[in-house]
Specification:
Distance between the termini: 35 Å
Strand order of the largest sheet: 15-25-24-17-18-19-20-16
Bound molecules: phosphoenolpyruvate, magnesium ion
Number of helices: 35
Helix content: 40-55%
């Protein structure tokens, strides 16, 4: 990195960097520079850039050439500015060495304080400050931090020595009763001297060398410790869990020490400029008298609230309040601050955008618009999809943190967020029965199938051993906003014994468990859940978003209940009604569809279909009513028929008896339906090509419902959709038959309905030939679940086994996101763009939407806006996310202009 600046200085009112340089200087470094520039009291120092960290790793943990010289130069500059020298035996400069990544990773990386102390300078510090106790307290902290953080000695070994002195010396000297803890502040200078001596002996014993007395050695050892903490397991895990990608490393901040442990007039604290839990505009934080920063974080003593500080030390509080005002005005954002008070004077050590609860995110954004700090557009851009999810779902009561640690059982994949607690059951039937008698249950399955929907619905939450985020369980549960964890491969389910094992732990049927669908964690026992109420500010943000967005937002819903619910959440129609889900609701329906499948003549099939017709019609009527005045896209039957029939002998015998067909025939038919690749087999419109009578029944049901609703004064806009189409001729056959049936029904009822006939685009061939297909289709709806599956050639149900390797940045980084969740804009996206362009080249007013899972994912919705879709459609609970994303897309587009 020849010639590239590696170290940035700040101090004396000037700084080489500024607040915008977070990528290079890390959040802390950028904040310190910016606070210096705006005249806040910040101790001077310098920041080694994140690029150096990157090079350090690329060079096999060697510092890049020129770094030593640049650090030296900045150190001299610092010494000159503050008039003290590092290692000076009389009046030493002491520094802290702190990590600081571009994105805050609280507590994940290392910090070393009081660097520069040695056997001589500690005496100098004592003399200069006339405070021997303080000097030796600082020294013992430094030896411990350096020894454990930079050199890997177990921290407990230091703690043990300190505790021993406290018990054997301090307690006796002060006559502290046995039931009262000896505080760090009780320990006097003599005792601290002894602690330092014992710490150094431990250091020598553990490492076979003396504790370094040379401050330069201390400095470089500490810089390495910070860089090394970047790749420490907890930091790596944190980045994975938070999905933090593309960050090259941590910066290192070397800053002049200010001391919060100088006596009663000193202290240290952490605060937020607003309440990070409620978002309320109140100063929020903790302050610890006579302490250094690590004491607050470590929870050694209970700190006082800021309100108490205001009472106790109004002068200090006033300085803080002043800084709070300046920083909020400056950053126009809630800040998370660290500060130290040294002998009554305030110093700012850190400021960064504060992490907040979802409720607080909404409240702060709206309040700041009302306070004139930001615009509505900025407020909308600040809300994240996670914030929206977070305000809806029940959560595990956060006060049970300890309990959660103790009861943690196993980790799965977080498919649908929120939390749920209930008794374990292993079959959908049990789930329904237990729920019927008022039990709250969690359905635990190896995987789920469409036949389980009843039981899934009756459960509080769903846990499966296999599957990924778009597996059946996940897709269905998401539609209901029901907490769901999938791919929990460590659980071994024994259906016969009705139990599951995690290692040697056994959870039996009826045992309570708790799921955290937001993290994928499973807990033993029933933890307490709380449902946060929707804050007013949520509605405000949504209203502003609706005023801005251009994309319409519809929902995927199969029942009147879901439709109504989605409408309340802002859905402007239905983009996908999966009719087959309606076949599973009751045994009567299941039997009718099964009878239809088992039938081997057209006549028998028609007879069975006739039984289904009234059910479908009634459901469609309910949906049309719920969506009065809004468009409703109804998709004809899609899954392969084998999914509808039982595979176990007992169930087949039951079916044979119920529909009066010999068992052997039922069994034979089920075997006949088996396919090697059902997802590429006889499904979608291929079924209605083979069995047009299914189309006849479904279109009749739709149009009858539409006519009857119209007569009742309900405004219907049906859009009949054919799935899995691959060719114009194929669609033409289906379209003609659809219109023929529709016309007949309308004629019979004497009603004219404006209906559309269109297709899903979910096979690459259909996307490629979109211009031809648009000659027939009045609308396209991208089924990006299948389109992704078929474009990537990866099974949407099984990709969970290997996809993580493709998404893992450290392993391969082939994909930035899971393509089944966030649209693969590069690959699948190209087909989408192509199909829209081609489609509109033949039919300029072609209506285009999306109904795959991606229609409710933030980044994908923005893509849909950019490629000119008319609407997105998603699960009811994701409708608000789509509304927000659509608004953000417009705002971002305007910003680019
Ligand atoms: C799709 O494939 O994206 C789609 C919406 O259809 P389904 O998920 O029902 O296959
Ligand atoms: Mg599909």
């Amino acid at each position: 990195m020849s010639g590239k600046k590696m170290v940035y200085f700040f101090g004396g009112g000037a700084a080489d960097g500024d607040g915008k340089m977070k990528e290079l200087l890390g959040g802390k470094g950028a904040g310190l520079a910016e606070m210096t520039l705006i005249g806040l009291p910040v101790p001077a120092g310098f920041t080694i850039t994140t690029e150096v960290c990157d090079l350090y790793y690329k060079n096999n943990k060697q510092y890049p050439a020129g770094l030593k010289e640049e650090v030296e130069e900045n150190l001299r500059k610092l010494e000159k500015l503050v008039g003290k020298k590092l290692g000076d035996p009389k009046d030493p400069l002491l520094v802290s060495v702190r990590s600081g990544a571009p994105v805050s990773m609280p507590g994940m990386m290392e910090t070393i304080l009081n660097l520069g102390l040695n056997d001589q300078s500690v005496e100098g510090l004592a003399a200069k400050t006339k405070n021997e106790r303080f000097a030796y307290d600082a020294y013992r902290r430094f030896i411990m931090m350096y020894g454990s953080t930079a050199r890997g000695i177990e921290r407990e070994k230091f703690d043990h020595i300190f505790e021993k002195i406290k018990e054997e010396k301090t307690r006796k000297r002060l006559n502290i009763p046995a039931d009262r803890k000896v505080n760090d502040t009780d320990v006097n200078a003599e005792e601290l001297k002894e602690v330092c001596k014992l710490f150094k002996e431990l250091y020598k014993k553990e490492l076979g060398e003396d504790f370094p007395q040379d401050p330069e050695v201390q400095l470089w050892g500490s810089i390495a410790a910070v860089f090394n903490s970047w790749m420490a397991e907890k930091a790596v895990t944190y980045r994975r869990v938070e999905n933090l990608k593309g960050i090259i490393g941590t910066a290192v901040n070397v800053v002049q020490m200010v001391f919060g442990n100088m006596g009663e007039n000193s202290g240290t604290g952490v605060c937020f400029t607003r309440d990070p839990n409620s978002g309320e505009n109140v100063f929020y934080g903790d302050y610890l008298v006579n302490a250094q920063g690590e004491d607050v974080v470590a929870g050694i003593r209970t700190p006082m609230k800021l309100a108490e500080l205001k009472e106790r030390d109004p002068k200090v509080y006033q300085q803080l309040e002043e800084v709070r005002k300046i920083l909020e005005k400056h950053y126009k954002e809630m800040q998370d601050l660290e500060f130290t008070v040294e002998d009554g004077k305030l110093y700012m050590l850190q400021c960064r955008t504060g992490k907040r609860s979802p409720i607080a995110a909404f409240r702060i954004a709206v309040d700041m618009v009302n306070e004139g700090l930001i615009t509505k557009e900025e407020a909308i851009l600040r809300i994240k999809d996670k914030d929206i999810e977070g305000v809806f779902y029940p959560i595990i009561d956060p006060s049970q943190r300890e309990e959660m640690k103790k009861k943690f059982l196993v980790q799965g994949i977080d498919a649908v967020p929120g939390a749920a607690t209930g008794k374990v059951v292993f079959t959908a039937k049990d789930a329904e029965e237990w729920a019927e008698r008022g039990e709250k249950v969690i359905l635990v399955r190896k995987e789920t199938s469409p036949e389980d929907v009843g039981g899934m619905h009756a459960s509080q939450g769903i846990l499966t051993a296999t599957g990924g985020k778009t597996s059946h369980a996940a897709v269905v549960a998401r539609g209901w906003g029901k907490c769901c964890i999938v791919g929990c491969e460590k659980i071994e389910i024994d259906y016969n014994k009705k139990l599951f094992k995690v290692g040697d732990k056994i959870i039996k049927e009826g045992d309570p468990i708790t799921l955290n669908g937001s993290t994928g964690e499973v807990f033993e026992g029933a933890l307490k859940l709380v449902t946060p109420e929707l804050p007013e500010s949520y509605y405000t943000i949504m209203k502003w978003s609706d005023e801005i967005r251009k994309l319409k937002v519809r929902t995927n819903a199969d029942t009147p209940y879901d439709a109504e619910n989605a409408r309340k959440l802002g859905a402007e129609g239905i983009g996908l009604c999966r009719t087959e889900h309606m076949f599973f609701d009751t045994e009567e329906r299941r039997l009718a569809i099964q009878e239809m499948i088992v039938a081997d003549t057209v006549e028998d099939r028609k007879k069975a279909l006739a039984k289904l017709l009234p059910f479908q019609k009634a459901d469609f009527k309910g949906i049309f009513k719920a969506m009065d005045g809004l468009p409703v896209t109804i998709r004809l039957i899609d899954p392969p028929l084998h999914e509808f029939v039982p595979h176990e002998e007992e169930a087949q015998r039951h079916l044979s008896q119920k529909i009066g067909v010999p068992f052997e025939k039922v069994k034979h038919r089920v075997e006949q339906l088996k396919e090697a690749n059902p997802m590429l087999g006889h499904r979608g419109c291929r079924l209605t090509i083979t069995y047009p009578e299914i189309l006849d029944m479904q279109v009749t049901a739709i149009m009858e419902a539409a006519c009857e609703c119209t007569k009742e004064g309900i405004k219907v806009e049906p859009e009949i959709m054919h799935p899995l189409v691959i060719d114009m001729k194929e669609l033409k056959i289906l379209e003609e038959r659809t219109r023929q049936v529709a016309e007949e029904v309308m004629k019979k009822h004497g009603v004219k309905i404006n209906y559309l006939v269109g297709t899903m685009i979910e096979v690459p061939r259909a996307a490629l030939l979109a211009d031809k297909i648009a000659e027939v289709a009045e609308f396209f709806s991208f089924g990006t679940n299948d389109l992704t599956q078929m474009t990537l050639g990866m099974s949407r149900d099984d990709a969970g086994r290997f996809l993580p390797d493709y998404v893992d940045e450290k392993k391969t980084g082939i994909f930035k996101d899971d393509p089944f969740q966030s649209l693969d804009q590069e690959g699948v996206g190209m087909l989408v763009k192509w199909a829209i362009e081609k489609g509109r080249s033949t039919r300029p007013n072609l209506k285009v939407g999306i109904c795959g899972e991606h229609g409710g994912e933030l980044k994908s919705v923005k893509f849909c806006h950019r490629v000119g879709m008319n609407y997105v459609s998603c699960s009811p609970f994701r409708v608000p996310i789509a509304r927000l994303a659509a608004a953000q897309a417009v705002i971002e587009e305007n910003l680019k202009k």
